[in-house]
Amino acid sequence: MARGRAGAGRHGPSPLARAGRAGIPAGERSGRLRILRAGGHGLTAVGRWIRRVADDPQALVLVAFVGGGLLLLHFLARPLAPFIAAVVLAFLLDRPTEHLRRKGWSDMMAAATVFLLFLLLVTLIALIILPPVLQQVEQFLGVAPEMFQRLKALFRALPSTFPGLVGDSFVQEILDNLSRTVTAGGEQILNAALKSLRGIVTIVVYLILTLLMLFFLMKDKHRVLAYLARFLPAQRPLLDAVFRQVVDGAGDYARGKVYEIGIVGLAAWILYAAFGLKFATLLAVMTGLSVIVPYVGATVVTFPVALVAFFQWGLGPDFWGVVVGYLILQAIDGNLLAPLLMSEMVRIHPVAVVLAILAFGHLWGMWGVFFAIPLAVLIHATVEAWRRHLVEEKVS
Q1: Binning pLDDT at 50, 70 and 90, where does residue 270 land?
Q2: In the prediction, which pLDDT does 288 show?
Q3: What single DSSP character describes residue 105?
């Protein structure tokens, strides 16, 4: 007992004893002590992780690579746009190129064949889809003022239709906001058209640079990887595992997303054409492209589809047929088609997907929204490979 009291005198009273002397109730004292211990355990775990990273050259290289890549994207996203596009397309075309290499084709022949077939396919799709889409865009701009006036008349009728629920001031506020939105949108379209005329040379140059880099990334893939490997540690099982996971995840995502765009767009066109919906090709292209941004894209495209159907038929059976068919199509895509085509994507929780869209969209605007899911897939693949590496280290 004396030794215990002496030890307490040397090291001072415990946090629980100090809290008791301060007049804090026993239940609150024990709760505070648990919080202190939990915080201490958390700091200890963070410290262990930092020491593990600092002691592992592979982990240091991985952290530097991920951090440096994000910094480059943040500060140089616009100048690096052709390179980023070329890398994404290289992931998309890697599997058929590697298939030809395994058949005994040379790097030049395999890359050139796949590259030319890709250009031919893109050209055919553009020749088939672009003319009707451009024609329907022109037609839509012609009827847009009439649709806007009908929409305003619909809102003005709300107070008389629902006298106890909707007031005149509320409707007028909605109409004012709608008018400002349409005016601002028209100005933005005009400014974008003027800028596009000035920037058409830049677009052509970027397109040529993207295609050139794509071809050389396909042809010299192994040479580029061998050159980069010279700057990495000789023993690098973690980095190799992360690279394999990232390549497989990114490739599966790119290919699956292209298939998904085509399938959803074609199914939407069949649905709209079957009902005789106006601007069917334009709306089908929008529906197909909406899958690039999960959840958000489908929600946004719902409004133009529903508005066009409403102005064409009112709230009749055809309107509900198109809207319900669209919702069923999006449900099939989200719950069956996307999981079937992109296994890596299914492992990312929907909340993480939305957070990635918000975070990268805030950093890089529309480009951030566009590349949010591929970046989330890459980060997820990196974390999974690192986790498996740590588990294997513990087992060994």
Answers
A1: very high
A2: 93
A3: -
